[in-house]
Specification:
The protein is built from three helices and no strands. The chain has helices spanning about 20-45, 50-75, 80-85.
Amino acid sequence: MRARLYCETVSQPARLPAAVGLPVALAAGIAIPAQSRINGALGTALDDSLAAALVSFGVGLAVMNRLGRAAAFRSVKATDVLRQP
């Protein structure tokens, strides 16, 4: 008796089109050195590199928090909210 092999079909993850991915990669490549330059200038202006890092981290955290909340709000449907007891 031969054993049967079952293969599940695995769906491929969605791919980002090159027309979208290339500009996003370019923007990220520009943003990283720009952030470094801004942090350096902020450290010089504050005369404290630790304070500059805390300001930079705090602003980045606030922006990411705001973007995350906006995305979460868009994903909630009005009917889901109304159905809750």
